[in-house]
Amino acid sequence: MLKLTKIQQKIVDYLDGPLLVTAGPGSGKTRVLTQRIANIVDKCQGKVLALTFSNKAAEEISERIKEQISSDNFSRVQAGTIHSFCLDIITNKGSQIGLPSGLTVIESAKDKLELLKKGYNNFNNVPQEKELRMILSQIQYYKQNFISPEVAKIQGNLDDSDIIDIYESYNNLLIANRVIDFDDILFYAYRILVERPRVARNFTRLYKYILIDEAQDLNETQYKIIKALTIDFDNLMMVGDSAQSIYGFNGSNSSIMTDRFVEDYKPEKFFLTENFRSTSNIIEAANKIQPESKSRSVFPLKGKLEVHSFEDEEAEAMWIGNQIDLLLTKGSNWVDHEIKLDNIVVIGRNRYLFEEIEKIFQGKEIKYSIGGSSSNLECETLEMKVFETGLRVLANQNNDLHYGQVNSYLKRDNKTNNFLQDLLNNREVYNSDLNINIISSVIDAWNILSKEKEGFSKALKKIERAIESLNNLDENFQFLIQNDINLWKDRWNKYCKQSVTGDRSLSHFRNQVSLGTLNTNNSSGISLLTVHMSKGLEYDIVFILGLTQGTFPDYRAKSLEQKKEEKNNMFVAITRAKRECYLTYPMMKMMPWGLEKKQNPSEYLSLIE
């Protein structure tokens, strides 16, 4: 293991008291964070709680800590996202504010819209979907600001009264179905911590040290939860970099870390400025984009940073494809190993920019993936959609919403208030698009799951055997349904690795799926990533395409704050590169209405050149 620098060692050795670490790109942030946790576990009593913003980051922290401490001590460290921690609070302590047990999470906009429509049954006509989405957005605003329907009635004006009434109706339907939406996770966790301060005190008796990773991404809601959790508590560490704050559209505000935390907790401050990732040319360019960054090169290598313009987007994509061919066959003077596809990334400000490069990669038969990891994927076959929707009812027997959806798929009427018994015993199917034999195996699988808490693999095998026994199934259908089954196999296998036999339950499993903690990394080949997707990753070779004014920086960035965040986006994109970084743009661009339009190079390029 590489030796720590003096500053890194001081942070690792800092045991008690509030701590703020400003860590630039490539400065060993995760290494310092995990080694400090290992040091705390070695020298201090109690548990450690590490909170971050993505499941991928939480997994990386866990894996690194596993390598540094004994298996006996690993149970003393809890690493996860803020949402997963808050859901645990609700699951274990929700009854203290009157929440029912066995709550499950709905994450899809479709489910929320369906409940909202049901909420209108007590009112007049149901609005059009566009208006419903606006109402959902207003409800989301209330929840993110911890405003309950009761408080909204007191604070709101008369113009808001209809929305507040439907907000109350929507919330009542959620609880009647024993489900919560994603915004409820933070909303109810905050209520529990504030209304039942003993719960917060019990957590800080259990967790003697709390660490917040990527603290520049905190928003007001999350910070209020951290403050409610840490009353009269000093051992709080925040680590982040305001120059990498790019989630303003989600309400994040780097001043929470740099100003509010400093004012509220008076932490000891440390700065990590040495960049151990990137070569000097790349760091120099990044610092021209973001002069506030104090990032310093420690590599003796200069590396490569080049700007290239092209006639149009097709020529730009063709050049990138040819350059990748050269790198794969001849290598790079700056990379001391054979270059493989997964050493390369193409970054675009927005996803639509990948259209031409995808055509080139497909023509050259170059393997690539978009996004880096699977999101909350849904099944593609109707039969497995029935299976996964029924799982929600098995996990939560009060779930009228998804019981209704199963019956809608099967084209049968809702006949009973005993949702679970109906799913397990009713084999009526009136949808001719469904394979009745496979649906019968799905019902058999549900019956296995209703009796065996950990029989998930056995249940899926039941469906697989039914498929194998059927003749003349369309080959494409067989491929798709096996992919769907494999998706649920992967999720269950990952859940089993993260949990202990005897502690598993279908509702907990289903909630972990909703939180995205069971997503598997399907990235292979060259990665095509938006800037937001690329955060926290690093590659030997980086191509940043589409660098025209209005695209990057985005035309929507109008205010000073938005323009600053766009610069942060560019800073993040460049600093993903370890050895080579290519900045490209087209001089002409095909517009959505079918005409070509002359493009101006991004203002960022003039800062670099």
Task: Explain what you see.
The chain is of the alpha/beta class. It is built from 26 helices and 18 strands. The strands form five sheets. It has a six-stranded parallel sheet, sandwiched between helices. Strands 11-16-15-12-14-13 form a six-stranded parallel sheet. It has a two-stranded parallel ribbon with strand order 4-5. Helix 1 runs parallel beside helix 2 (29-43) and helix 20 (436-451) packs antiparallel against helix 21 (456-469). It starts with 5 loop residues before the first helix and ends with a helix.
Layout of secondary structure:
Elements: H1 6-13, E1 19-23, H2 29-43, E2 47-52, H3 55-68, H4 71-74, E3 77-81, H5 82-93, E4 104-106, H6 109-119, H7 129-144, H8 149-155, H9 161-176, E5 179-181, H10 182-195, H11 197-206, E6 207-212, H12 220-229, E7 236-240, H13 255-265, E8 268-272, E9 274-275, H14 280-289, E10 296-297, E11 304-310, H15 313-330, E12 344-348, H16 355-364, E13 368-370, H17 382-395, H18 400-410, H19 419-425, H20 436-451, H21 456-469, H22 475-498, H23 506-515, E14 526-530, H24 531-534, E15 539-544, H25 560-574, E16 577-586, E17 588-590, E18 596-598, H26 603-608
Parallel strand pairs: 1-7, 1-8, 2-3, 2-6, 4-5, 6-7, 9-10, 11-16, 12-14, 12-15, 13-14, 15-16
Antiparallel strand pairs: 17-18
Helix pairs in contact: 1-2, 2-3, 5-10, 6-7, 6-9, 8-9, 10-11, 10-12, 14-25, 15-16, 17-18, 17-20, 17-23, 20-21, 21-22
